[in-house]
Write a structure and sequence with these properties.
This protein has five helices and ten strands. The protein is α/β, with parallel strands linked by helices and 151 residues long. The longest helix has 9 residues.
Length: 151
């Protein structure tokens, strides 16, 4: 009988259940998830890749660095303070008329909104690609510090 680690090593790509009825595309390497693709709604066209800055409140805005992907539950007017630093934005809630959508279009950066499970899945420092044309958010690589603490 094969162990789950052996089974994972054989699998290079697949679909796993996400929250609700969502299905996530994943890429596995040596038993580890190295790519997760989540789907939401297109809010602003374009594609950008950067380190995730998870912004849950105004205190978190200090951690937003130049070229970051802002990841938030929703977009509030307070995000305008750091929007000029962002290369993209992704939110768990919202639609094309949401504040995040308008901000992203105004700043000319890609945005995907209404991504179920985004906050539980993406962590600060993860390398993330936001594709505002396809409406996807992909975790390309986990934050190295987080991987070590998860082992």
């Amino acid at each position: 009988m094969k162990t789950s680690a052996e089974a994972c090593n054989r699998l290079s790509e697949g679909t796993i259940p996400g929250p609700g009825r969502e299905k996530w595309q994943v890429t596995l390497s040596k038993g580890r998830v190295v790519g997760v693709v989540m789907h939401g709604r297109t809010a602003s066209l374009g594609t950008a890749t950067g380190r995730a800055a998870v912004v849950m409140n105004e205190d978190d805005m200090a951690s937003v660095k130049e070229g970051a992907v802002i990841v938030s539950k929703t977009a509030s007017p307070a995000l305008l303070v750091v929007m000029s630093k962002a290369c993209a934005i992704a939110t768990e809630y919202g639609g094309q008329g949401a504040i995040a959508s308008g901000y992203a279009r105004e700043y000319g950066i890609p945005a995907v909104v209404g991504v179920p499970g985004l906050i539980k899945t993406v962590k600060a420092g993860d390398l993330v690609r936001v594709d505002g044309t396809k409406g996807t958010v992909e975790i390309i690589r986990r934050n190295a510090r987080r991987q070590r603490s998860d082992e």
